Amino acid sequence: MAEFLTDIRTIRERARKEIGKGPVTDAYGADLGRVIQVLNEALATEIVCTLRYKRHYYTATGLYAEPVAAEFLEHAGEEQQHADRLAERIVQLGGEPDFNPDTLTERSHAEYDASLDLIKMIKEDLVAERVAIAAYTEIAQWLGDGDPTTRRIFEDLLAQEEEHADDLRGLLERLPASAKS
């Protein structure tokens, strides 16, 4: 049987002594305050993306709008799920999720878009997904082994953001040339 690096009695004593810290133990290796800040920035990103996709869903018009709008609605729901996961993790780590609407766009990695042109909507959503992909890749790498749970959350979100980007690229490729001009 493998030995613990820290004596189990010491681990038990620390667990009792610092019970108020919940899941954050001495083994936590990341900068907790900075992790919570990064999580709140990602939360703002997901909320802005949810709002952008919802706007695009409701305002998409034209001959090719129906399947594109359906994709927007699906992505909006998934972005909301991402926001929920991030808010839950912030609370687990002892932080407070920041839902302040006055500062959402300042804290968000992605931008809000109010386009009315269907192709521009798709392109702006694709840009936002690419921004999230780049940011979440960096965050997962930065977290490394310091906070494996948060890193896995970002890796899960990253996989879905890559799927969204692929979906949007596919929409652009499938639209006829006449819709793109």
Automatic annotation (TrEMBL):
Lineage top rank: taxon: Bacteria
Keyword Disulfide bond tagged: no
Gene3D superfamilies in alphabetical order: 1.20.1260.10
Pfam families according to UniProt: Ferritin
GO terms under biological process: intracellular iron ion homeostasis
Keywords: Iron, Iron storage, Metal-binding
InterPro entries: Dps-like, Ferritin-like, Ferritin-like_diiron, Ferritin-like_SF, Ferritin_DPS_dom
Residues in Ferritin-like diiron domain copies: 29-179
Keyword Iron carried by entry: yes
Cofactor(s) required for function per UniProt: heme b
GO MF entry, a single one: ferric iron binding
Chain sites annotated for binding Fe cation: E46, H82, E129, E161, H164
GO cellular component, one term: cytosol
SUPFAM superfamilies the UniProt entry points to: Ferritin-like
Protein's UniProt name: Bacterioferritin
Organism: Streptomyces niveus (Streptomyces spheroides)
